[in-house]
């Protein structure tokens, strides 16, 4: 007799992890539908999403990895044998132990990506193993803004776009019309319907920009100049919040002097944004209170100009009084539950003076930089997540694999990422991965990176494992829920891999939770709730509080901000102490030449994919069958290229092929789609799933010496390139 039940659970096809009801029969998912009881907003959000209806298909997809595999041919030959989990774990542990004995614990590096799993078990294992070389994409996604806002305010902020309360909104370098179908995109549309001023800053007229009252098509890489231009107008026209600036901002007079050159005319010359639009945007934002300034990943990929842009935007929020007020932003809080920082054992490990491959060269993105900032945040008893904000610079990791400098890295474990496709300079990544003594990949599907592995291990995916998302510990929020079914075949939660590997390497006392579910329940224990209770609601948060800097401290004085001065640091004393620019100072862009006269943007995403994921799904592939290169009609005409043509886009690093699409955007700029490969092609050398055909990272460089010296951000937007019709 069959057993049929309906289980509340969550999607995992993007970072928003919407609530679902899964109909389960005999341990198999038969149907999924939105869960409007736990998440009332789900129905509207999920109506336009093409991914979640394919969950049942993904769980039984013929290309899923279901059993542990061990390479038996040459690396990249595509020859594998099925082995047991026990054999795989035993052999991996033995290999790591031998490499550690020969070279030291730094011999191991890891690679992570987007929010497809929980990363603290990986970081916990690394801390116990003794390696500082966790690597991801933080330098070009999330980290720059977290660092800049913390230096300015003493802690990160969350933006609040409230259609009812917010009077003006600037969306800068973010495109929710394509990056997700979340509540945020619906909120943007509702804000537009209410007729309030919406300003969008983006080189392309994206779906989001089409909703705007004012579109500012900034040239790639010049965003910091535009931000300083807005500040120039606001200061000159006295549109700033005078009382807040006088009482709570440090260095305003220095800022005023710093802004003198950034006139609207100069800004137009550098950025391409019309001077009158610079003035109009500054007035709309400066005269509308409260106003929301929401920045996105586009700013994180400007190389040397990412950090100055984030700093300028942080100052823009502050001097207009749009800091820690409803409808604009709020200073976040640390979690009431156990944060990732403690689960990953970061603080005890940091006391051992770890040597990251990029440690000595980066002022902020390092253990020393973290310690300096921690001195300030602890004034409010807050601690930033450590492993993300001290992660090793990828370029230094690849070079250490190839050269042994500053020490050898001979092994890598890849989880929820695909560095051969998603990291800068694919050719360098390829040579580095090929050189390793041990490469282990935990995956749902075969990827170009897994094709080079020694071991490929099957990860439990959507609906097969519990979920707890916590924003890495920079906010007091948790959402998620239980799995709907046990993992199919021999898939396992990633937690199981790290725990079992740790047990084999002498870490027994540090892994008290036998299952991932037990570990999650422990992390929520300070709330006095069980995992079942949490799963029933799927959400924990506290209402936002505002004007927290005015709350009294222990001596009856306002607590202020967790900075050196106790105020918003327009002029950053900590940056000055580090020998960096205390005020945002844009850098000159790399200049093209006759051979490479166009400017490249390399990070565009398009629905229905999620970055490089789900190209195996035929229904999604039919919706978006080819990789796209966008340019303006004027650019296309000058190049003699028709819309829909196949073109080769080329930089000094390499060449990739795309199909052209003409859209309103900055002239002399080409925007190529990120994350493209061909799962239908041969899963071995030399094809490697078509990695060499339309991969945007064939065109990019993550060179460490050319990266931002504070965080290590490399340039993805603003690269000299050329385009030729095929």
TrEMBL record:
GO MF annotations, alphabetized: acetylene hydratase activity; iron-sulfur cluster binding; metal ion binding; molybdopterin cofactor binding; oxidoreductase activity
UniProt cross-references to InterPro entries, sorted A to Z: Acetylene_hydratase, Asp_de-COase-like_dom_sf, MopB_CT_Acetylene-hydratase, MoPterin_dinucl-bd_dom, Mopterin_OxRdtase, Mopterin_OxRdtase_4Fe-4S_dom, Prok_Mopterin_Oxidored
Keywords from the UniProt entry: Iron, Iron-sulfur, Lyase, Metal-binding
EC number, UniProt record: 4.2.1.112
Pfam families, sorted: Molybdop_Fe4S4, Molybdopterin, Molydop_binding
Residue ranges of every copy of the 4Fe-4S Mo/W bis-MGD-type domain listed in the record: 4-63
Residues making up the signal peptide according to the UniProt record: none
Record PANTHER family: OXIDOREDUCTASE YYAE-RELATED, TRIMETHYLAMINE-N-OXIDE REDUCTASE
Similarity-based family: Belongs to the prokaryotic molybdopterin-containing oxidoreductase family.
Protein's UniProt name: Acetylene hydratase
């Amino acid at each position: 007799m069959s057993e049929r039940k309906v289980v509340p659970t969550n999607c995992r096809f993007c970072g928003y992890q919407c609530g679902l009801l899964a109909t389960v029969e005999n341990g198999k998912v038969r149907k999924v539908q939105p869960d409007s009881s736990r998440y009332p907003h789900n129905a509207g959000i999920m109506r336009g999403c093409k991914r979640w209806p394919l969950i049942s298909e993904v769980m039984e997809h013929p290309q899923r990895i279901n059993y542990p595999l061990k390479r038996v041919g040459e690396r990249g030959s595509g020859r594998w044998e099925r082995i047991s989990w026990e054999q795989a774990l035993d052999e991996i542990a033995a290999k790591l132990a031998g490499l550690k004995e020969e070279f030291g614990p730094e011999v191991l590096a890891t690679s992570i990506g987007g929010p497809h799993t929980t990363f603290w078990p990986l970081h916990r294992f690394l801390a116990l193993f003794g390696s500082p070389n966790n690597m991801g994409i933080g330098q070009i996604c999330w980290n720059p803004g977290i660092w800049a806002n913390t230096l300015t305010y003493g802690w990160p902020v969350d933006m609040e776009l409230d259609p009812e309360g917010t009077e003006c909104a600037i969306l800068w370098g973010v495109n929710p019309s394509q990056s997700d179908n979340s509540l945020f995109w619906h909120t943007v549309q509702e804000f537009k319907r209410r007729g309030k001023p919406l300003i969008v800053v983006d080189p392309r007229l994206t779906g989001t920009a089409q909703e705007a009252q004012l579109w500012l098509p900034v040239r790639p890489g010049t965003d910091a100049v535009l931000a300083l231009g807005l500040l120039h107008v606001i200061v000159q026209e006295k549109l700033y919040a005078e009382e807040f600036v006088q009482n709570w901002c440090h260095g305003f007079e220095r800022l005023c002097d710093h802004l003198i050159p950034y006139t609207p005319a100069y800004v137009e010359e550098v950025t391409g944004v019309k001077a009158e639009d610079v003035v109009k945007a500054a007035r709309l934002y400066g005269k509308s209170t409260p106003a929301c300034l929401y920045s996105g990943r586009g700013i994180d990929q400007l190389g040397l100009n990412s950090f100055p842009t984030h700093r300028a935007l942080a100052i823009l929020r502050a001097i207009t009084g749009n800091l820690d007020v409803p409808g604009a932003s709020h200073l976040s809080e640390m979690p009431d539950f156990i944060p990732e920082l403690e689960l990953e054992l970061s603080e005890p490990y940091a006391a051992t003076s770890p040597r990251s491959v990029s440690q000595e060269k980066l002022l902020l993105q390092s253990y020393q930089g973290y310690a300096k900032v921690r001195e300030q945040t602890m004034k409010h008893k807050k601690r930033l997540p450590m492993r993300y904000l001290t992660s090793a610079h990828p370029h230094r990791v690849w070079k250490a694999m190839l050269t042994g400098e500053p020490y050898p890295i001979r092994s890598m474990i890849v989880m929820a990422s695909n560095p051969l496709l998603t990291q800068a300079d694919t050719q360098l990544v390829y040579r580095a991965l090929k050189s390793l003594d041990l490469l282990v990949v935990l995956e749902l599907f075969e990827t170009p990176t897994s094709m080079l592995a020694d071991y490929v291990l099957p990860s439990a995916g959507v609906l097969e494992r519990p979920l707890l998302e916590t924003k890495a510990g920079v906010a007091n929020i948790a959402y998620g829920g239980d799995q709907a079914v046990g993992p199919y075949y021999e898939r396992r939660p990633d937690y199981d891999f790290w725990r079992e590997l740790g047990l084999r390497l002498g870490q027994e006392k540090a892994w008290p939770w036998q299952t991932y579910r037990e570990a999650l329940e422990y992390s929520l224990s300070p709330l006095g709730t069980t995992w079942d209770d949490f799963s029933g609601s799927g959400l924990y948060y506290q209402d936002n509080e505002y004007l927290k800097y005015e709350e009294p401290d222990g001596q009856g004085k306002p607590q202020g901000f967790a900075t050196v001065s106790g105020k918003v640091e327009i002029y950053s004393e900590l940056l000055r102490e580090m020998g960096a620019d205390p005020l945002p100072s844009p850098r000159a862009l790399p200049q093209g030449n006759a051979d490479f006269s166009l400017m490249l943007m390399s990070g565009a995403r398009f629905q229905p994919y999620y970055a490089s994921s789900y190209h195996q799904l035929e229904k999604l592939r039919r919706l978006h069958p080819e990789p796209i290169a966008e340019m303006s009609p004027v650019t296309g005409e000058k190049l003699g290229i028709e819309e829909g043509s196949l073109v080769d886009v080329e930089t000094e690093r390499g060449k990739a092929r795309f199909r052209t699409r003409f859209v309103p955007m900055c002239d002399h700029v080409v925007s190529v789609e990120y994350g493209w490969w061909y799962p239908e092609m041969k899963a071995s050398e030399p094809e490697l799933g078509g990695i060499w055909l339309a991969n945007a990272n064939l065109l990019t460089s993550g060179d460490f010496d050319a990266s931002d010296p504070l965080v290590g951000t490399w340039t993805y937007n603003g690269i000299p390139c050329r385009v030729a019709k095929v």
